[in-house]
Write a structure and sequence with these properties.
Elements lengths: L2 H19 L7 E4 L8 E4 L1 H10 L16 H4 L11 H15 L20 H19 L1 H4 L6 H5 L45 H6 L21 H18 L20 H21 L22 H5 L25 H6 L31 H5 L1
Antiparallel strand pairs: 1-2
The structure holds heme C (4 copies).
Length: 382
């Protein structure tokens, strides 16, 4: 073998190794989730599951505090959200919030040590809004979070800033120059599963209310669906994000026979439908309301507030923390959960009003989608 040949063999081996390194190494398991022959299977890699399990370990169980004694609103000076809790429960929540959000910095991440009633740190003001948001999610978005619910830990996991947040991409808002506007395409981004789809599928779908359903129901365009290719790209970008955030394949929600059909979809698709509406709601009404409160170093390249997506809560698991009950034992995480003592104080009155229905109609309440007529071969070619 000549030297050149040897070198070529080595090069070929290195090139093959480099190429294969991009593939997922075996083993890979496939689990059937629907009737045989329908392609409803989930593909799992043990290594990915182990990594997701490590991130999704629930925090240590709550240390219950006594619900008896004076209310926090009577004991402390500046309590606006957690006033109904007993002083003991209130202090317990402070200890929990420290462990969930600022374990390294401690109480003084949110408080001026000399005066705990002082609101001058932005972190305290943000936390108060976060308390309201958490209670709101648990009370008004049961269509998504069910009885499982969320706490600060669901998103923060011991970090000041949750690991998965997003900002509007600076690139997407550039004015097209001589080379045109890439619109965030062709620079593989994590949020769209390293595909070349636009790297910000969220501004339109998880903040704005762009129509996600883009598949036409008729053989020829009838003007009822957005004609923009961009909208379709956003749909696929969002779907890639949803799959990776939950650690599942498309068939966790869809039957590939028809991605549009709700009848063929799994029940999880309806939960996801509400998840999209919930995320939009939280981004505009809670994170959005904190514009002007977050300091400049927390804002995105175009000056927007940090926002959440499916990965903020899910972090690779089909249910955050695999559905562990982390809310029970933390009364401050649910609004209106009166502790035993507070309930005894309250005279029998009208029952608290039921949580209002979220504004968006569910898939079930929608106009039935007519079955698409089979496209004649000639129409398909035009
Ligand atoms: C992640 C932010 C955060 C951390 C960390 C935190 N707190 Fe708080 N704290 C708050 C918020 C928000 C309020 C106001 C709650 C309300 O309005 O219902 C508050 C209020 C208080 C109050 C009431 C003060 C008054 O008179 O109005 C006390 C006391 C308190 N916290 C103690 C603590 C202690 C002790 C720790 C550490 C173990 C701690 N906090 C850690 C956010 C935090
Ligand atoms: C649904 C997800 C979610 C939940 C639940 C949640 N947060 Fe947050 N939190 C966020 C996001 C997103 C941000 C913005 C990140 C940033 O500051 O860059 C944030 C920011 C914060 C900040 C500002 C951190 C900083 O350094 O700028 C504090 C403090 C905070 N949250 C406290 C809390 C507390 C306390 C709770 C529970 C009562 C809570 N959060 C619940 C998503 C969440
Ligand atoms: C967690 C559930 C879930 C997963 C996983 C998921 N989807 Fe979806 N998909 C939905 C929901 C919900 C909608 C409808 C959204 C709406 O109406 O707002 C949808 C809509 C769509 C549409 C538009 C359908 C129409 O009527 O025009 C397409 C196409 C699509 N998904 C493709 C995919 C692909 C490809 C994947 C895998 C990369 C995927 N989806 C993964 C839940 C999911
Ligand atoms: C505020 C936190 C939060 C956000 C944000 C969030 N989810 Fe969830 N999601 C949950 C919780 C909690 C559950 C568990 C509910 C239960 O126990 O049934 C859940 C459950 C689900 C399920 C049901 C899984 C199953 O096997 O039954 C799907 C599907 C889902 N989420 C999709 C999404 C999608 C898609 C998004 C983004 C558009 C999203 N979620 C955003 C908290 C969240």
């Amino acid at each position: 073998m000549t030297f050149a040949r040897q070198a070529a063999t080595v090069l070929a081996a290195v090139a093959a190794g480099t190429l294969l390194a991009a593939c997922e190494p075996p083993p890979v398991y496939s689990v059937q989730r629907g009737y045989r022959g329908t392609g409803m299977a989930q593909v799992y890699r043990p290594a990915t599951l182990v990594a997701a399990a490590a991130i999704n370990t629930p925090p240590p169980a709550a240390t219950p505090a006594s619900p008896d004694g004076p209310r926090a609103s009577q004991v402390f000076q500046n309590v606006k959200v957690l006033g109904d809790l007993s002083a003991g429960e209130f202090t317990q929540i402070m200890v929990d919030m420290t462990a969930w959000v600022s374990p390294e910095q401690g109480c003084t991440y949110c408080h001026v040590a000399a005066n705990f009633a002082d609101d001058s740190l932005y972190t305290k003001v943000v936390s108060r809004r976060m308390l309201q948001m958490t209670q709101y999610i648990n009370a008004d978005w049961k269509q998504h979070v069910a009885q499982t619910g969320v706490t600060c830990y669901t998103c923060h996991r011991g970090n000041n800033v949750p690991v998965n947040i997003w900002f509007r991409s600076a690139e997407a808002s550039q004015t097209p120059g001589m080379l045109g506007n890439k619109a965030g395409q062709n620079s593989p981004a994590i949020q769209v599963g390293l595909s070349s789809l636009p790297n910000d599928p969220f501004s339109t779908t998880l903040l704005g209310g762009e129509e996600i359903r883009v598949i036409s129901q008729t053989a020829l365009p009838d003007g009822s669906k957005p004609s923009l290719i961009m909208a379709t790209e956003h749909t696929y970008g969002l779907m890639m994000h949803m799959s990776t955030s939950l650690g599942v394949n498309c068939t966790y929600c869809h039957n590939t026979r028809s991605f549009a059909s709700w009848e063929l979809s799994t029940p999880q698709r309806a939960t996801a439908y509400y998840g999209i509406r919930m995320t939009r709601d939280l981004n505009s009404n809670y994170l959005g309301s904190l514009a002007g409160i977050f300091p400049a170093n927390r804002l995105g390249p175009t000056g927007d507030v940090p926002k959440l997506n499916c990965a903020t809560c899910h972090q690779g698991a089909y249910k955050p923390l695999y559905g562990a009950d982390i809310v029970t034992g933390h009364p401050g995480m649910r609004a209106g959960v009166k502790t035993a003592a507070a309930a005894a104080d309250t005279p029998a009155g009208p029952a608290p009003s039921a949580a209002p229905e979220p504004p968006a109609p569910g898939p079930a309440g929608m106009a039935p989608i007519p079955a698409a007529p089979a496209a004649p071969a000639s129409a398909a070619r035009t």
